[in-house]
Specification:
The complex is a heterodimer of chains A (169) and B (192). Chain A has 2 domains: 86 residues; 80 residues, Winged helix-like DNA-binding domain superfamily/Winged helix DNA-binding domain (Arc Repressor Mutant, subunit A). Chain A has 10 helices and no strands. In chain A, helix 1 runs antiparallel to helix 2, helix 1 packs parallel to helix 4 and helix 7 packs across helix 9. The longest helix of chain A is centred in the first third of the chain and has 26 residues. Chain B is an all-alpha fold and 192 residues long. Chain B has a domain of 62 residues. The relative contact order of chain B is 0.07. Chain B: Keywords: Membrane, Transmembrane, Transmembrane helix. Chain A: It comes from Micromonospora wenchangensis.
Chain lengths: 169, 192
């Protein structure tokens, strides 16, 4: 990689890293895991930077992040790390309406499996269609639909009184 | 159409995104990781090629060497002549026997040497490598015939007088004894 390519890469990373780190944080739910995920995706993008610089490097990097998050090897490592880390903070009762619901939802999102959480982030944060999500993850549209349905059902199961809280608000 | 729970999911995700950490110097660390990744890839590729060669080479050699006929199995009927008896190598001179006396096949030589120089053909057979023939000289028919030939007293005398080497001279007195025993047996014959 020559100096020109490296300057373009540094510019790209400096400009898009915050947004990409947000997505990585949503995908992983952990600061260190998000940093690791972003670095892994960037390390896989750098060798192909010469081919990607004139196309869509951000799209490639995002796709690498999505697929890396749901990859089998990474899931094994994440499982090992989950055993060593402590229990996530539980949302307690709060006097301010809605805050406890959001905290509970945050904890419920962290409890989702990686594949389901990735679909939720892509569908409800990135606002991608099912077809786009399927293309990004390399799976079928039916898989995206089933994962989304299971994720929402799991969230309803983890937050049984969420409908009641929503109505009360 | 969105449901309340979907709205809640969106709002929660937006809140979470605001809490995302801001890290710096990501590029250098990513480049280091990419370099190590490339190094590991090359190393593992080389190791894989080496392992494949180690496995495939013996198999290829075994496959290419299959054209040669395997060693022939022994025939059911013996094709060649029967094994030659041990006495085939009889050309050894009796002098060598004397040198070999320390090995354990001296008995035939002892009986034949005193017999006479004419009986050199007899000791030649025990000189073979097989110790079986010594049984034959145990009944020294030729020796008995050789003894009366004449030099019964003459042969012990030079032996005793000429002890050139230790191992050779030691048997000499022993040889002289049998002729003495035979002497009475054979003596009367010439006396008559």
């Amino acid at each position: 990689m020559d100096e020109d390519d490296r300057a373009r890469l540094a510019e790209f990373v400096a400009g898009r890293a915050p947004a990409l780190m947000r997505v990585a944080y949503l995908l992983t739910g952990d600061r260190h895991a998000a940093e690791d995920l972003f670095q892994s995706a960037l390390a896989k993008t750098i060798p192909r930077w010469r081919d990607l610089r004139h196309t869509d490097p951000e799209g490639y990097l995002r796709t690498v992040m999505y697929r890396e998050q749901v990859s089998w090897w990474r899931r094994l490592r994440r499982y090992r790390e989950t055993l060593l880390t402590g229990v996530d903070d539980r949302a307690g009762p709060d006097l301010f309406g809605g805050t406890d619901v959001r905290l509970a939802m945050r904890a419920a999102l962290r409890a989702l499996p990686a594949a389901q959480r990735t679909v939720v982030v892509l569908r409800y944060y990135e606002d991608l269609t099912e077809t786009q999500v399927a293309a990004a993850l390399g799976c079928s549209v039916g898989t995206v639909r089933s994962r989304t349905h299971r994720a929402v059902a799991r969230l309803r199961q983890l937050l049984p009184d969420i409908e009641l809280l929503e109505v009360r608000r | 159409m969105t449901t309340p729970i979907e709205n809640l999911i969106r709002a929660t995700l937006s809140d979470l995104a605001e809490e995302a950490p801001t890290v710096h110097d990501q590029l250098n660390r990513a480049e280091r990781r990419a370099r190590s990744r490339r190094r590991v890839t090359i190393t593992m590729s080389a190791a894989g090629v080496l392992a494949a060669m180690l496995i495939a080479t013996p198999l290829a050699l075994a496959a290419s060497g299959g054209g040669d006929a395997p060693p022939a199995a022994p025939a059911s009927t013996p094709s060649g002549p029967p094994a030659a008896p041990a006495p085939a190598a009889v050309t050894e001179p009796p002098v060598d026997q004397g040198v070999r006396t320390g090995r354990g096949a001296p008995a035939p030589a002892r009986t034949t040497i005193p017999a006479s120089p004419a009986s050199t053909a007899v000791p030649a057979s025990p000189a073979t490598s097989t110790p079986a023939p010594p049984a034959i000289p145990a009944s020294p028919a030729p020796a008995t015939t050789a003894v009366p030939a004449t030099p019964v007293p003459a042969s012990p005398a030079p032996r005793v007088a000429g002890p050139r080497t230790g191992p050779v001279t030691a048997p000499v007195p022993a040889r002289s004894a049998p002729p003495v025993d035979r002497g009475p047996a054979t003596g009367p014959v010439p006396a008559r």
